[in-house]
Design goal:
Elements: E1 11-18, H1 28-40, E2 43-50, H2 56-67, E3 73-77, H3 83-94, E4 98-101, H4 106-111, E5 132-134, H5 140-146, E6 159-162, E7 168-170, E8 189-192, E9 197-199, E10 205-208, E11 210-212, E12 219-224, E13 238-243, H6 250-253, E14 256-259, H7 262-270, E15 283-286, H8 294-303, E16 310-315, H9 317-322, H10 324-336, E17 340-346, H11 353-358, H12 365-381, E18 386-387, H13 407-419, H14 422-425, E19 436-437, H15 441-453, E20 459-460, E21 463-464
Parallel strand pairs: 1-2, 1-3, 2-8, 3-4, 4-5, 10-15, 15-16, 16-17, 17-18
Antiparallel strand pairs: 5-6, 6-7, 8-9, 11-14, 12-13, 19-21, 20-21
Helix pairs in contact: 8-10
Length: 467
């Protein structure tokens, strides 16, 4: 079928995503999904970035203007656990819209927390809020959109819905297809204006190189301490088999698929918007272990005639130590091309070994501190082409408070912060409280605590309150 028909003759769809007020970063997942839909169906598809401050009545009005007489078909992706967007989806569904939950954790958030039918306090899922959910690659939506009112539900890969009897039906998701991961329309992101949706000019993009995290395939048997608030009770250890960091729901959601072909990555970089001088806008390289292949990628970028401005990296502290040589090569190469490397986020998370063990980080505070010493030395060697500090825009992982904070851990962390001047360049302006998604390993941990102690922790949407 030819989908290159005139724009005014095509149907319409929108994808709503969480966003921060005043920002201009891209949303790779939703924007790539919208691109796939436009290229493979008769639907035009925009992405609407909705902040917490946005007036939902205004969003609803602009959606009505956008869809006109058509029945609204609205996807929701990358919602960041926002209950206001969950409620908004339900309101739109009740008004007659088709609402689709997609993106990270779409399956478990639609189905609900383990055991919710037997435990009234647990998160019951979002099946009342969304017509259905799609878990896995975005191209699975293509078949559904071709047969939206037909009998396509039962044979749409990755689709999750409730049948006429109210029972859940969960179809097996498709494998990733790199042919759909080469292209992103970076001009399909909109926010709220005074009279309608307005285009958001993206200044920082993302490039997908690795799906999931290699650490997520490392399964280990460990135990997690009780919360300090219950530490005085006589209780057994909470033993768990954990893959990845204990707080990470991505480990359960994606696991580790692997790296994409380097040409797929180059195609994505080639499609990024350009700055006024012809260089590509800064972009985050989505790869949890990027240093191994980074020099090769930069060489390929240069051979393709691409001029990068800045590449932002996210990685673990121990993998930085292992790949320090490649980091030095990459920074040198980026500098020779007129670009920069920013260590945008290193997952330190804590500087106390008890807390790191409970987070199942697989590193020690000593590893974190050695990493900081190394990157400070790299900065001395490459002052113009290497960045890593808070003032450079980096936001390194620092989780506080946690359920395991006590006087000893607090004193230990404060001592190291002072000794290594971490407030000078490493620590973010605000720490991130520990967030326990119901499908993470810590979700299993807290349910065991509830069972053993005959108690209940409050749920805020798909998040479990440990405090």
């Amino acid at each position: 079928m030819n989908y290159k028909v005139k724009k005014e003759h095509r149907k319409k769809m929108a994808i709503i995503s969480s966003y921060f007020k005043g920002e201009t970063y891209g949303l790779l997942g939703p924007q790539m999904a919208a691109t796939i839909i436009e290229d493979n169906t008769l639907f035009n598809c925009i992405v609407v970035a909705v902040t917490r401050e946005d007036n939902k009545d205004l969003v609803k009005k602009y959606l009505a203007d956008y869809f006109g007489a058509e029945r609204p078909i609205i996807g929701f992706s990358s919602l960041s656990g926002r209950e206001d967007l969950f409620s908004f989806a339900k309101e739109l569904k009740n008004d007659g819209a088709v609402t689709i939950l997609a993106g990270p954790q779409a399956d478990v958030d639609y189905l609900g927390e383990v055991g919710w039918l037997r435990h009234y306090n647990r998160f019951k899922g979002l099946s009342d809020n969304f017509t259905f959910a799609i878990h896995g690659p975005a191209e699975q939506a293509v078949h559904l959109l071709h047969n939206l009112d037909g009998d396509a539900w039962s044979n749409t890969s990755g689709l999750i819905y409730r049948d006429k009897g109210g029972d859940f039906v969960q179809n097996v998701k498709s494998e990733w297809d790199e042919n759909h991961l080469k292209k992103v329309n970076w001009h399909n992101l909109y926010g709220l204006g005074e009279t309608g949706f307005i285009h958001i000019n993206i200044t920082t993009g993302q490039v997908l190189q690795q799906i999931g995290c290699p650490y997520a395939i490392r399964k280990r048997r460990t135990f997690i301490d009780y919360p300090v608030s219950l530490a005085g009770n006589d209780h057994p250890d909470v033993k768990l088999f954990i893959k990845g960091c204990s707080f990470c729901d991505v480990a359960a959601d994606k696991g580790f698929y692997g790296e994409l072909d380097i040409q797929t990555v180059i195609d994505q970089i080639q499609g990024l918007p350009e700055l006024s001088d012809g260089r590509k806008i800064p972009f985050e390289l989505i790869n949890e272990n990027p240093l191994y292949g980074l020099p090769k990628l930069l060489e390929e970028i240069g051979d393709a005639g691409i001029r990068p401005s800045q590449i932002n990296l996210t990685l673990r502290a121990d993998w930085l130590l292992q790949g320090e040589g490649n980091l030095l090569k990459a920074v040198s190469l980026a500098g020779s091309m007129g670009g920069k490397i920013l260590l945008g986020s290193i997952g330190f998370e804590s500087f106390d070994n008890t807390i790191l063990r409970n987070l199942n980080k697989g590193v020690t505070a000593e590893t974190n501190l050695e990493t900081i010493s190394r990157i400070r030395r790299v900065k001395e060697k490459f002052p113009d082409s290497f960045m890593y500090s808070r003032d450079d825009g980096a936001i390194h992982g620092f989780i506080h408070p946690t359920p395991w904070d006590n006087k000893e851990t607090s004193c230990n962390i404060q001592r190291l912060i002072s000794m290594y001047a971490l407030n000078f360049d490493i620590l973010p302006y605000k720490s991130t409280p520990l967030i326990i998604h119901h499908a993470s390993s810590l979700g299993r941990w807290i349910r065991k605590v509830e069972s053993q102690e005959k108690m209940k922790f409050k749920r805020y949407g798909n998040i479990i309150a440990w405090w």
